[in-house]
Amino acid sequence: MSAKPLCSISVATTPTMTRKIKTLSVNFVACQLFALLMAVWFRIYLHPNKTSPFVRHVVATLLGFYLALFCFGWYSLHFLVYLSFHVFCVSHRYCFIVTLGYLILCQITRVYVFDYGMYSADFTGPMMVITQKITSMVFEIHDGKLKAKFVSMCVVMPSLLEYLSYNCNFMAFIEGTNYQPRYQDNANGKENGKWKQSEPSPQSVVVSKLCTCALSLAIYLSLCKVLPVEHVIDDKFLSSTPIHTQVVYLYLSMLALRPKYYFVWTLADAINNAAGFGFNGYDKDGSPRWDLISNLRILDIEFATSFKLFLDNWNIQTSLWLKRVCYERCPVNPTAATFLLSALWHGVYPGYYMTFVTGIVVTMAARAVRHNIRPYFLVSDTHKRVYDVMTWAATQVAISYTVVPFVLLAVGPSLKFYRSWYFCLHLLCVLLVMALPVKRRRPPKQQDDLQAEHSSTDNNCNQKDKSS
C-alpha cells in the first residue's frame, strides 16, 4: 500500500469501512445501555452502606475490562499496556511524555495503517480518556508531595487495585462520601430555616437526561443528511450561492452536527448519575445538583456570546484537564501551548491541527475585543443587549469557521474551504491582535506571590477582627 501525500488523502468511506463504523456504533450503543442497567444495579445492590470499597473496586474494574473487550476485542490489550505506565508515576513529566507519546503512536497506526477517516468510534477513544486520568493522577501526586497551590492534590499513592479501578471504572463512585445527610440553612423555608438532607435520588435527572439524549439523536439523524458539512466545499454551491447564504448554511450545518456530541456526552452523564456519581451538592432551595462531571451545557453553548464561553461549556472535563496540566503550568504562551496539546491529544489528522491553530488566533482576537470594545457597551442595558446579539452571531460564525477542518480532516478540503472564504477570519483576527492592546497574563510565579500576599493580608485582617 503506497503512501499518499496528506493533502491528497480523502475521507470517502468504502463499504468495508461503512460496515466497521456501523458495527462499532452498534457495540457502543449496546455497551451504553448495558452500562446504564449496571449503573442502577451498582447503586442499589453495591451501595457503600452494603459493601466494602474493595468489592466495589473489584466489580468496577472487571466491568470496565469486560466492556473494553466487548467493544474493541484484541485492541483492548493496548489498555493493559497503558495501565502499566503506573510505574512512571515517580516522575510526572516522564509519565506525561510516555503516556501522550504512546497515544499518538496508536493514533498514527490506526489512521495511516488501518482505517483513515474512521473516527466515529475506535480503540483510541478510551485511550484518550485514560490519558487524562493517568496524567491527572501523576500531576496531583506531584502537587501533593510539594504541597503546590493547585485545587486538586493527591497526598497518598493509590494501591494497584485503586489505580486499576480508577482507570477502568466506567461509572461508579466508591466510598459514597460525595453526599452525606446534612442540615442546610434557609432551605425550602422550613421551620427555623433548617432542612434535613437525605441521600438524593438521581431518578428524575437521569430520566431528564435520557430524554435529552433521545431528542438530540432524533435531531441529528434528521438533519445530518440534509445539511452535510462537506457541502460547503462543493464547487456548484460555491459558484452559485451568495456569500450571506453560505454563512447561514455553514452555521446550520454545524448546528446540525452538534447533537451527535450532545447525545454521547449526555448519555454518559446519565449513566454516571444512575450509579450515584456526579452529585454536586444542593441548590439554595435544597434541590440536588447532578452536574459535577457533566461534559457540556447545551444552552450555554448555543447562546454563547464569546469564543471562550463556547469552549468553557464544550467538552468541559477535557478543558479542565488541559487547564490543570498545561495552562496553569506553562510559563510561556499558555494559550498556544494548551491548543497545541489539545491537537496532539485529539489525534493526527491534519484538520485537527488546522482547527486548533486557527483557534489560537481567534481566542487572542476575541480576548482583545473583549478587553477594548466591550466596556463601551456596558453603559446601559440596551447597549449591552446589542453587544450580546452581535457577539453571539460573531461567536457562532467564528466557531463554525474554525472547526470545519476538524470535520473535513484532510488538508486539501480544509484549504479549499478557507480559500473560498479568502482566509478572511484569519486575517481579521491577526489585525485585531495587532491593533488592540491586551493586558499581559501574569506569570505563574507572580500569581503565586500575589496570592500569598493576599492570603497574608486576609490573615492579618482576620486576626484584627478576632482581637477586636
UniProtKB/TrEMBL annotation:
Keyword Membrane applies: yes
Transmembrane portions of the chain: 24-46, 58-77, 83-105, 351-369, 389-408, 420-438
Any Pfam family the entry gives: MBOAT
PANTHER family: LYSOPHOSPHOLIPID ACYLTRANSFERASE 2 (PTHR13906:SF7), PORCUPINE (PTHR13906)
Region span, Disordered: 444-468
GO cellular component annotations of the record: endoplasmic reticulum membrane
UniProt-annotated location(s): Endoplasmic reticulum membrane
Residue ranges, compositional bias (Basic and acidic residues): 445-456
Protein name: Membrane bound O-acyltransferase domain containing 2a
Bilayer topology: Multi-pass membrane protein
InterPro entries tied to this protein: LPLAT_7/PORCN-like, MBOAT_fam
GO molecular function, one term: acyltransferase activity
Native organism: Neogobius melanostomus (round goby)
Superkingdom of this protein's organism: Eukaryota
